[in-house]
TrEMBL record:
Top-level taxon of the source organism: Bacteria
Protein name per the record: NifU-like protein
GO molecular function, one term: iron-sulfur cluster binding
GO biological process: iron-sulfur cluster assembly
Organism expressing this protein natively: Spiroplasma poulsonii
Gene that this sequence comes from: nifU
Stretches assigned to the NIF system FeS cluster assembly NifU N-terminal domain: 13-122
Amino acid sequence: MEFDKNDPMFLRQIIMEHYSEPQYKGLTKEASAHSIHQASESCIDDIHLELIVADQKIMMARFDDVGCAISTASTDIMAQELEGKTIRDGLAIIDNYFAMVFDKPYDETKLNELVAFINIAKQPNRIKCATIGVTGFQTLLLNLLDPSNKK
């Protein structure tokens, strides 16, 4: 799907759709789920994340939160991008997203709806919102890749 990153109303629409009707919100609480809790010290964002992985493939990505539009939408879109991918491919998607958010070189063609956050680097006060859930998914995936990393 082609996205017009130069149309702020289109980008806002993507964010608002994922905020008002998140598709991946709701925890399974299955015993096989890997979970993590992320909370911001400076705002309302409080997110519980869950991944179900089998044979190095992300079968399900879910979250539950109290959060702003940016944190909810970025977590929902990332869950959408992660499902069906291998752990390594999921980490590559996250790395590419972080590169965009932190204004470093990235591959726009691999962002899909994550391109909605293309201007976050220009809003430093919103970077934490755009990364809090994604950082949780990254931590879970890294721990699954190398269980000795677990905190």
